[in-house]
Every structure is written in C-alpha cells, then in structure tokens.
Hints:
Number of strands: 7
Shape: globular
Number of domains: 2
CATH topology of the largest domain: Four Helix Bundle (Hemerythrin (Met), subunit A)
Largest sheet: 5 strands, mixed
Organism: Kribbella ginsengisoli
Pfam families: MDMPI_N
Strand order of the largest sheet: 1-5-4-6-7
Domain Mycothiol-dependent maleylpyruvate isomerase metal-binding: 25-168
Structural class: alpha/beta
Strand content: 5-15%
Distance between the termini: 34 Å
Number of helices: 11
Protein name: Mycothiol-dependent maleylpyruvate isomerase metal-binding domain-containing protein
InterPro entries: DinB/YfiT-like, Maleyloyr_isom, MDMPI_metal-binding
Radius of gyration: 19 Å
Amino acid sequence: MTTTATAARDIARADRTAARRHRDAEVAAWDDLMASLDGTDWQQRTVCTEWDVADIVGHLCGQAEDVNKPWSFPLRDRRARRVYPTTPLLDAHMMIQADDHRGTPYDVLQQRFDKLWAKATKTISRNPALIRRMQVTIEGMPGFDKLDLGYIQDILLARDLWMHRDDVCQALGREFDAGPYADELVAQVMRDIVDGPFWSGTPVVLTLTGQGGGTYRLGQGDPIATVSTDAVGYMRTLSGRDDQPTVVLIDGDPTGAEAVATCRMPF
C-alpha cells in the first residue's frame, strides 16, 4: 500500500480553536503527571541539563506569567543579561523563569502551575488580532528572530508544554503519552522546518512512525530518498535533545537520511 506524503509547505497553520485544544490537552496532561510525582521524582535531573523536574515546572510557570503579565518579559530579559551574561538571551530568560520558582514546595508549585495556566490559556484565546500581530524580537533563536505574538502563544507554548512533558517522562523512565493531538503538533513542526532556514533543501519523503506519526515531503523537487524515524524521537532530535537518532533509509540516496538526521530547529 502506498502512503501519500503531505507536502510540509502546504500544511495549514493551526487556527486559534485548534491551538486552544492543544493547550488545554497539555495542561490537563501536566495535571495528571504532576499528581503522580513523589518527592524524589521532582528532584530527578532531566535532559535540560541545568534543571531537575521541578525546575521544568518552574520554567513553565514562568512562561504562563509572561503571558499574564507581559511586562514581566522585558524585566526578566534585563535580569537575564545581568545574571547570565555569557548565555544566549532566550536561554538565560528561561533560566530566570526557573530560578524564580526554585525552592517552592512541590504541592504549591503544582497549584501555581494550574492557576497560572488556567489564566494564561484564557488570555491567549481572548487576545485581539491587533495584539496577536505584534512582532516580537527574540535573541538567541536563529531563524525565529522576529515572530508574531499570536504564533508564539498559539504554537510555540503548546509545543513547549508537550516537549517538556516528554523530558520529564524521559527523566523518570516513564512511557510518554503524546496525547490526542500529537499528530497536529508534529505537523506544525514539519511546517516550521521548511518555512524557515532550518531544512537543507534536500527533497525527501520522511515517514514518522509511532505516536504523532505521518508521512511528509520536505524540500522541493523529486525526492531523492525515503526515510523513516520515530516521530517523538525526531522531535527530540530536531530540538537538540538527542544527536544520535535512529534514521532508517528505506530507499534512495543516503544523503537524504543524513539531511534528516542533522536538521535542527529551535523549539
């Protein structure tokens, strides 16, 4: 049976209704995950090497705070430059987010997450078009230097919640449930790969297997190869979490598999 490949360039951007579904599903999944953690779980180190599980939750609380109180973003940037002067600004900003919540009792941290994200997801859904079109300059995120606020809040925040939930499952040795909208989240990543400067241009057919899987055509022109890899694993690879992906060349030129394995994109 032949599987039709979706041209990544033709994937529609998730609309506000879909983005709300993605956020709500991820916040609910985080509630379930945090409720299952004991004291030692919160202290486990993660692939985000500076952070343990509690730090990731603190960072995500900071993300919601930056939505609810937009003035906190430039204030954190100012502190980030001072506290972490040699770290790229975006990374330093996220470290400040985690710093701001470090040491919070775990039950309080969970309650804080719930409260902040309940407000944030409503704020995002209610933002008027004028606000959503505001251009945000992001230092330390090559290829995403200027982004619409609506894109950041609709697409990137849901992706961050999803990917960090996998980080925690990886740290705890638990199976990751990618959720009911994994295929939609992954499809948005595929669109972003070819919509920015991240893809080499090599035309390939990429079949992503497992949760969130699908078959995509990357690059323009006749594909030189058909390649396969795990969908969630490839999201880790793209975001720089795993530099040794298992990429299978099904047929064609091996440079197609190399292009897939070496592609990276800020998450």
